Structure formats: C-alpha cells, structure tokens
Amino acid sequence: MKGAVTRGPAARAGGFVPNGIVTLLTDFGTREPFVGAMKGRILSACPQARVVDLTHELTVYRVAEASFWLERLRHDFPAGTVHLAIVDPGVGTERRMLAVALDGQLLLGPDNGLLGGLAGLAGAEARAVSPDLLARLDPAPSSTFHGRDLFAPLAAQLASGRIKFEEVGIVVSDARSSILPRARRGAEGIEGEVLLVDRYGNLFSNIEIAPESFMRSGPVVFGGRPLACVRTYGEAPRGTCVALVNAFGVVEAACVEGSAAEALGLGPGDPVSIRLAQPPPPVNAARGGS
Questions:
Q1: Which of 72, 86, 211, 240 gives 20 to 30 Å between its CA and that of 117?
Q2: Which pLDDT value is given to residue 278?
Q3: Helix 152-160 with 34-45: angle, nearest 10 deg
Q4: Which helix or strand (DSSP H or E) is residue 126 part of?
C-alpha cells in the first residue's frame, strides 16, 4: 500500500486534497519510543510524509485537553493536512475510530469525545472507520497500541492519497459529543473553569472573549481571587498575578515571571468568572423616551 503523495486540483470530501503533512498530538510522552514507532509506520507507508509533532506531553487520559488543542492548532496548518490525535483510555474496546473532514483537512482519532466538537461543526463530515479497512491496515493489531498498528498506517495512506476519505467507512451523525467543558454565558457575565496548566504555570480557562470586550469587562475571578486585566504580561510588575486573553483566544491567569498555578493554588476544574461590561442604555431610554 505504499505510494507517492497524490497531487492535483481535484477536490475530495470536505475539499480535501492530501499534501503529505501528518500532525501528531498524543499523551504518549517521549521517554518511551511509542511516538517513534508511530512515525516508523507512517514513513513505511508514505516515505514522503512530513510528520509534525504538535505535542506528546498532554496530561495523560485527559481527552478534553486534547480536544482543546486540536480545535485550535488545526488552523495553523494548510488544507490537505491529516491530523492524528490520540488520547485513548478505551483502546482495544468497542469504541470506534473516526475520521472527520473539515475545511479541507482530515482529523483522525478515537470516538471518545476527542473529535466530537469538530464533527459537529457546519461543513464537517464524520465517518466511522470500517472493520474491513482496519483489517487491511493490520490483520492482527495489538489490543493496546492502536496508535501504531491502526491509526498511524491509516493517517499515512490518507496523506499519500492511496486511500480516499470516502473509502474510510460510512458517514455517521452520532459521533460521541465533545467532553470539553464549555463556559456558560449569562446576562451579566460568563462562568467557566480552568482547562489546563501550561509549562509556565499559566491557567488556561474555557472562556472565549474578544480582547477588546475583555478589556472593557468587569472583574475577572480565578478561584475566588479577582485579578487585574492586562493585554500582555509585561504590563504588570514581576510576581503579579494578572488575567489576559492569550494567543489562543481564551482568558488566562498568569503570574509575571512566575507560576499562576502555584501562586493561586489552582488547577483544572477550578472556577473562573468574568463580569461583562453593561452596554449604555439607548438614547431614547436615557432621555425618558420620545
């Protein structure tokens, strides 16, 4: 099933024309050679593949964290990219494997909520990978390493053009819903929670808001502690805990040249809230009507 990368103007499902790029997003870490084994399978099937490591340091078993990053990082890549994301506590069970075509890209992963948010977007098409196709990829896969035995070969064949998205399996509309917690917007503000902590100790929340609206908003509270709103880290003195909208569009708590997670004693699941600025009353209402 080896072959060169297919190139040409003919668009496929979701506008997908493979470009040979395969990204990897896992919780495998880099101490053991799990990621290397996956890359070996990809390159064996598609030697021309360009494999990009997004990260392999996701919090183990946290499907929601993988969803968060995949939903955002896909925008940094061109159409024709195959994204393979694996955080798969249910490996070897009856859970399905999914392929989703969206915006000219393909996304692969287990049907455990990781791809649910993307499969539900307008223009997305989700397919359940058929058992017959899986048997072609590896007739005797291990029950504990589908990333190497099934996902990696499928990603390679899709990236090479040897397997078309339409051949993956039947279209499904019941992909498992995203388990990524969503913020709740009310009349006066937004209630959310901490999603993840990065290596700097910054606390990423699930509250999305435009920077302009954020700077006009009221108090931002992480775990019961109000924080000053800034546009970037250097606007506050060293050691100060602040709130800002980060490069990924979500409200973040940071400690300038320090760790907000340590300073505030917070982590995933802790509450975050932001009070929205109230718009001024209509001119007629302010004047008592006309």
A1: 211
A2: 63
A3: 30
A4: strand 125-128
pTM: 0.88
Task: Decide: helix, strand or coil at residue 273.
Answer: strand
Report how far residue 152's alpha carbon sits from residue 276's, in angstroms, rounded to the nearest whole number. 45
Asked if the model's pLDDT at residue 280 lies above 80, the reply is no
Assign 284 a pLDDT band (cuts: 50, 70, 90): low
Residues 6+ positions from 108 with CB-CB distance below 8 Å? 82, 83, 84, 85, 97, 98, 99, 100, 151, 154, 155, 158
pLDDT digits (tens, 9 = 90+) for 119-135: 999 999 999 999 999 99
What's the CA gap between 60 and 57, in Å, rounded? 8
List pLDDT tens digits, range 155-167. Answer: 999 999 999 999 9
The helix/strand/coil state of 261 is helix
All domains in the chain, ordered by first residue: 13-172 (3.40.50.10790), 184-275 (2.40.30.90)
DSSP H helical ranges for 143-264: 146, 152-160, 211-215, 260-264
In one letter, which amino acid is 100?
V
Provide φ and ψ at 244, rounded to 5°. Answer: -155, 170
